[in-house]
Write a structure and sequence with these properties.
This protein is of the alpha/beta class and 320 residues long. The protein contains twelve helices and nine strands. Strands 1, 2, 3, 4, 5, 6, 7, 8 and 9 form a nine-stranded mixed β-sheet that branches.
Length: 320
């Protein structure tokens, strides 16, 4: 068996069949499809079982709800393929997806293959192609800046080097940390222009769009972890300014969501509790491509002027 595809499933009945069918319709046939039903309350589990009856390449794992990281870990423990791929239950892949990634891994003798993908939005489809990258250190800044490093689902992992597991305590940023742990052992990397993954943008009430009180803390933590990875793996940091820019982009976005959320009280205390000023104070933002608005917000955060910051964001939002 060459590829194990791991799909965590939780209350996904509306889109689950399309996801599974996209795997079964692959041109590449030598795969194991692992469906991990993470305590779904709808009929997702039954849908998984019905497909497993029709195709012996499908393994269904039913478990108590433990979150997406726990579900993916269960899938990893059951994986038998030489390579591992991940797929979210509300997304789907084109018929050539597994073949193009597998062929590239074989041709380049690669431990790790990264592919371009599609964003599926209500306004239409956006194609996001990946350039050729032959060396992880040389290509890291580009891969990070263009959002090819972060996701799990646009990658093929050599399973014998996949000894790490997902951090169960996280439900935001866990993909990136998992990728960093694996990438420390990578000898050869390959890229595919577009591997035919369709990432379906989430609804307004999803985990990625509702405000999380720990979102600012996680954004800063991921920047610190990225810098640590670069220093430990490469001996230097080829993407320091890009990492700082991403961090500020994310922090500012989360602050705007915080201020806009009318259900939250004591927003000043939420910021104070979840912000790590140490990173903001120690990072040199002079060479980072920030807007005037972002620079002002960073300055207010560095000085811990949270009340003034919230008033400023309210003012800017009302003027838009």
């Amino acid at each position: 068996m060459e590829i194990s595809i791991i799909v965590p499933v939780y209350n996904s009945s509306a889109k689950l069949s399309a996801c599974i069918e996209s795997v079964l319709n692959q041109e590449f046939k030598d795969f194991q499809l692992i469906l991990v039903n993470d305590g779904s309350k709808d009929n997702s589990g039954s849908i998984c079982d019905e497909y497993a009856k029709k195709d012996n390449r499908i393994l269904v794992i039913h478990k108590e709800n433990g979150g997406v990281s726990s579900a993916r870990n269960a899938g990893l423990d059951a994986a038998l393929g030489k390579y591992v791929a991940f797929l979210d239950s509300d997304d789907y892949i084109d018929s050539f997806a597994l073949k193009v990634m597998y062929d590239e891994a074989k041709i380049k003798n690669a431990d790790f293959v990264i592919g371009g993908y599609f964003f599926e939005k209500t306004q239409g489809t956006i194609k996001h192609d990946c350039a050729v990258v032959k060396d992880l250190q040389e290509g890291f800044e580009y891969l990070f800046k263009e959002h090819f490093i972060n996701p799990l689902w646009n990658k093929l992992f050599l399973r014998e080097k996949l000894t790490n597991r997902f951090e169960k305590s996280l439900s935001l940023g866990e993909d990136l940390l998992f990728n960093y742990q694996f990438m420390k052992s990578v000898d050869t990397i390959a890229t595919v222009s577009n591997m035919g993954y369709h990432y379906v943008m989430n609804d307004e009430n999803s985990l990625t769009t509702i405000y999380r009180k720990d979102a600012v803390k996680i954004a800063v933590m991921l920047a610190e972890k990225t810098n640590e990875f670069c220093e430990e793996t490469f001996g230097n940091n080829p993407a320091k300014n890009v990492v700082a820019q991403r961090c500020v982009d994310d922090v500012v976005e989360h602050i705007y969501k915080l201020v806009a959320d009318k259900t939250l009280k004591n927003k000043k205390m939420i910021l104070k509790k979840n912000l790590n000023e140490k990173y903001l104070l120690e990072t040199d933002f002079e060479k980072v491509a920030l807007t005037k608005n972002q620079r002002l917000i960073v300055a207010l955060l560095q000085r811990k002027w949270y009340g003034i910051l919230i008033l400023y964001v309210k003012l800017v939002t009302n003027l838009r």
